[in-house]
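Structure ticket #2291
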Amino acid sequence: MLTGFRKVLAAFDMVGTTAPEQVVERLEELGVVEEWPPEARRVLTVLAHLAYGIGTGMALGLLRRRRGGVTEETAVGSALGVLAWGAGWASWLPLTGVHRPPWKQQDPKVLLPIVDHVVFGAAWGLLYRVTRPDQV
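Resolution: structure written out below.
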């Protein structure tokens, strides 16, 4: 979900590369995947996307004590999406040298990842709502 939304934004030149793409690029700079063929690097990027997306969605499921209505789950999911953005874009990604922290960037495009994380979180919230019919 997040990757697809990010690709749409990239098509309109609103964002550049995704965080998993940036992580793999950083690994290339460090020489960790230097000898890997391009196909293996693409697979690593896809696996990073899936791990991030599924891991964040699992966190949503683990943090929820009860299922709410559609509006509540969308809001909670969106909040988790913003939290996930903050955990990545404002902490471990800058600390590992993947990119500068958002507050040190002068481009307003730095705010767009917040939007795609809100959409991503909302989608997970709705998915949680649909897959947990046993809870009220």
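Closing remark: The chain has a mean pLDDT of 84.
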